[in-house]
Amino acid sequence: MRPLSYTQIALYQTCPLQYRLQYIDGLKPKDKWYFSFGKTLHICAEYFFKVKVPFPPSLEDLLDYYEKKWLAEGYSSAEEEAKYRVYGRDILTRFWQIHHADFRMPLAVEKLFYIDIEGVKLRGFIDRVDKLSSGGIAIVDYKSSRELFTQDNLEKNLQLTLYQLAVEQMWSLPVDRLTLYHLRSNTPCSCGPRSKIQLDNARRLVVGVAEGIAQQQFPALENQYCPCDFAEHCPYFRQQYEEVKPELQHALSELNVADTVERYVSLQAQIKELKLELEEIKQTVIDFCQVRELNRVFSRKHAITYKLVEKIGFNPDEVRMLLEPEGLWDRVLSLDSSKLKQLAADETVAEEFRQKLTALKQVISTSPRLWVRRLTEEE
Ligand code: SF4
To answer: Coil, strand or helix: which one is 129?
Structure first.
């Protein structure tokens, strides 16, 4: 298996099918302006710090380089591109002012790494690695996203966790600080290093993703970024792109799919209304029987019987006291899924145990279900 990168791992987690389409089938995602913009800023930040002597390039030099390296792909118009070009210059000017003043040569810039995690090869580039006066290492990853990072983003960022694993494996030096550098506002957002438990969890995650890929598990997983650039290959969206195929016109004709969908939604709405009405009428009959102390009421054609039905159950403590001494308790125990879910999320229970419990989850049975959602105008 080829080495995995953080980007691939993150994509597999988001949607395994999208991962397959992009990295195995080789489909190319569309150009996006925000990727071009972010990449240009990254290249310039690298240029600023990747110097051989302890003097960074001048501002003029940096901005010249920016103009030469500007990536124009993905912008919707020349105006939009020009607007972001100016914005990028502002960001880099501020970047230069901040880092020129206290410039220190980093330990590494755009550091390529290959590491082995339980037989899985992981590769990547770390934007910047600094040596702190404490002797420890600081890892910096530049981000060009719009929003600033919350503490939670920082603490859970898998990329930083994997980079810490890489640096500790490559240099055997302790990592003291992890930083996501928000380029748009020139704000470094930092936190301390990951704990051993967090690093172990990340290792398990990498191994789990590699296993999923090796076992060719590529289900489509709907997520907040859907539809992706490959929607015509996705079972959730493909039907919108398909041509009518005569061999498929059997039980659900391709020609009447739209009518069938509308009929399904309309019937569902009717059922909902009828259920509400039924509940109201049921309560009216019950009230009537209770007030009049009747157990049966009649129309010309039907009779409805009213009864209080008891649901019989056992007191668990009493049953246990009786069965346990006889060695029969295990025979009546059954799993309560909702309680198991609660246990797996309970932070007072040891993390390792919760991981093991979560790993026991598996598909017990499958049954077809339908969900209805109203489409927006654009869709
Ligand atoms: S549209 Fe959504 S679910 Fe379908 S492949 Fe793309 S990301 Fe996955």
So the answer is: strand
Task: Choose which residue among 20, 217, 228 to substitute to test ligand 1 binding: the one with the highest number of ligand atoms within 8 A of its C-beta.
Answer: 228
**pLDDT confidence of residue 117:** 95
The string of DSSP codes covering 74-97 is T-SSHHHHHHHHHHHHHHHHHHHH
Residue 280's pLDDT is 95
Total number of domains in the chain? 2
Q: From ligand 1's centre to the CA of 232, what distance in Å?
A: 9
- In which domain, by residue range, is 262 found? 255-305
Ligand 1 within 6 A of CB of 11: no
Same domain, 261 and 210: no
The answer on 202 and 74 residing in a single domain is yes
Q: Using CA of residue 196, residue 201, residue 202, residue 208, what is the dihedral sign?
A: positive
Q: Which pLDDT score, from 0 to 100, does residue 248 have?
A: 57
Kindly state whether residue 364 falls inside one of the protein's structural domains.
Answer: no
* 122 and 70 within one domain: yes
Q: How far apart are CA 283 and CA 277, in angstroms?
A: 10
How far apart are alpha carbons 228 and 216 in whole angstroms?
Answer: 20
Check residue 249 and give its pLDDT. Answer: 57
Ligand 1 nearest atom to the CA of residue 227, by list position: 1
108 lines ligand 1 (CB under 6 A): no
Is 284 a domain residue?
yes
pLDDT band per the 50, 70, 90 thresholds, residue 253 = low
Residues 93 and 179 in one domain: yes
Task: Let me know whether 148 and 282 are in one domain.
Answer: no
pLDDT single digits (tens) 15-62:
999 999 999 999 999 999 999 999 999 999 999 999 988 889 999 999
More confident site: 341 or 73: 73
CA distance 139 to 171: 13
Residues 208 and 65 both lie in one domain:
yes
DSSP state of 184: T
